[in-house]
Amino acid sequence: MTLYLNTYAATVKPDPYILMSEWADEKFQLAEYSAEKGSYRLDRTPFMREILEELSPQSPTQDIVLMKPTQLAGTTGSLILICFGIDTGIGDMLMMMPTDAMAKRFSKKRLAKTIAIMPELQSKIGPAKSRDSANTILDKVFSGGSITLSGSNSGASYRSDTYRVVIGDDLDGFDLDIGGEGDPGELLDARTGAINNSKIYKNSTPTLKDTSLIYREYKSSSQGKFNVPCPECGELQYLLWGGVDADFGIKFERNDDGEIIDIYYQCEHCTYQIYEHKKPWMIERGEYVHKYPNRKKRGFHYNALYTPLGWKNTWARLAEKFLIANKELKAGRTEKMVTFTNTMMSEPWEGPGEQPSWELLAARVEPYEEKTIPADAGLVILVCSIDTHDTRLDVLVRAFNKDEESWLVYHTKIHGDPNSPEVWDAADQIVNAGYETEDSEVLKIISVHVDSAGHRTQSVYNYCRVRAPKIVAIKGAVKEAAPIVGRPTMQDVTFGGQTIKGGCQLWPIGTHQAKILIYSRLDLPGRGAGVYHWPDGTTDEYFKEVTGEKLKLKYVNGRPVYQWTPEPGRANHALDLEVYAYAAAIRAGINRPGFWDSVEKAAKSQPKPKRDVDQAKTGGFIPAGAGKDWFK
Q1: Is the Cβ–Cβ distance between 434 and 620 less than 8 Å?
Q2: Fewer CB near the last or first residue (10 Å), C or N of the chain?
Q3: Contact 551, 453 (CB under 8 A)
């Protein structure tokens, strides 16, 4: 009986009566991977206290969710949970990361280094040996349990065993449909089986709102936000970025060089200016305010504004990141603002490419004539795009200034088979014509892109070969991340298969990125960087076509992918033309350093072209002998 009781006491024991937050303050050590090596200090990141307490065995909470910025304690929470489990013999644990490679890297770079500086853990886990299955990179057995690390990219990882503690780290990096078996969040929940005192800890930086797993988990939780008191009025508030027009949030001033010289947080209750040196006092007294306090799933949320003093992401550094991202956003490039929103503000980004209303765009036509450039456009260049069909060419001419603000100059169709030389003769008349500004200056097109996809590829090559580099053949790139203008390839070869230098070039165009940028600009009002303008008389057909696609979420091999999809019953030819025209402007050099200086210098040094009588009779470019069936 004594042997039985001793064995029972050694194997069946109650959970340790200590909060994980207290254990972490007393025992946990941070290795050199951390911003602060040495003994863990919870007073540096007080927003982790309630999270660790809910993860403690004493708490009845089983499901804990953290939506967080990057590099701010979320994965450290996972590490504390694992080390606490090893030290107290809490049972079998599973930590899932997006891939096996990430799990191995975590084990080597963080877990192993932490165990190496905590002797009490070393004594409970044997030394790592390649032949010792009790302690490998991804599986470690200790007295009272085990820890298994795995990637999420295998459905088998979710089926094999039952665990008391399950961790889903960097949840938004998981496949959305694991091996066709369903939602990873639900699969993680299933890993605890029928264990009634289990813990499931999911943390991640959010990504796109439509697909973010952590955002979905957080929305179904208690939705706690870490509120801090104002040093002046004492009222609690969740720190938000705010904005220029907001009466709360981050405010800053810059000098003439654009450097930030003053920055503070404006209290939303009393408008007191809170400087960053008061942040430690605030976060030490902070607390989570839960929107739905009665929900069993506990959700937690904070952002990089709570970063401890002495760490990299100061308010000034965040403001610099925001300014860069905002400048890009105003120019129609969303990538940096998406990154700032996700990784710093820990907020999901609402998907790009919202479809503009063609009716609203059509209502914005301006009182300048087609085939002309408004006088207030300033210094511009002209580009042209040609979309090839079996029975016609679609043609567009657009003017761009140095801020990438642009004006539609001409949009037409040349009817006829592109295998016919007459059709390309008509295209030449448009491409080589002069186009007037409203103060009677005449400008020439400097860059032309001709679509080579479809059934008339060789005719396009023949046309472009002898007209390069002004006129080149293009083709849409396959990859979503492809740059708007890629590196060209030579298409002409000798009888022996060798590439002919100086032959026809084919330029790849990143249509996916270009469409995102153009859609973000079409709705921009007034004047300024990236704004699109259209002359009075632009047809409804054009506006329907330029908004003829929508960026829709689809799933490819379990991963969310945004794909451009034509709207039913709507053509998209004008959108293609605008994509090719913008790419032609990039190839010409509109965003290349020094380009506009050279354009201005050339404009001043060269005599202004005069409008001749023939151009006056034909609107500037329609050839005198053109058949009436060419242009319709």
Answers
A1: yes
A2: N
A3: no
Residue of 566, 125, 520 whose CA lies nearest to 338: 520
DSSP class of 610: P
Task: List the domain boundaries for the chain.
Answer: 315-344, 370-536+574-606
CA–CA distances in Å: residue 494 to residues 137, 466, 491, 497, 501: 56, 17, 10, 5, 10
Q: Which tokens hold the place of 549?
A: 């696609």
**What's the token pair of residue 214?**
């952590």
CA-wise closest residue to 279 among 304, 254, 252: 304
| Residue located via tokens 């990096």 | 173
Q: What is the per-residue pLDDT across 460-514, written as a single tens digit (0 to 9) for each?
A: 999 999 999 999 999 998 787 788 999 998 887 777 778 787 788 999 999 998 9
pTM equals: 0.66
396 backbone φψ class: left, alpha, beta (φ>0; ψ -120 to 50) = beta
Q: Listing from the earlier edge strand, what are the strands of the sheet with 249-254?
A: 249-254, 260-266, 273-274
25: closest CA among 57, 49, 2?
49
Q: How far apart are CA 332 and CA 342, in angstroms?
A: 18
Give domain 370-536+574-606's CATH number out of 3.30.420.40, 3.40.50.12780, 3.10.310.30, 1.25.40.10: 3.30.420.40
CA–CA separation, 245 and 234 (whole Å): 24
Residue 443 pLDDT:
93
Per-residue pLDDT reduced to its tens digit, 60-91: 999 999 999 998 988 899 999 999 999 999 89
pLDDT digits 0-9 by tens, 131-178:
555 678 888 888 889 898 988 765 555 556 788 999 999 998 887 655
Mean pLDDT of the 533-541 span: 95
For 495, the token pair is: 């009888």
Dihedral sign computed on CA atoms, order 192, 194, 195, 197: positive
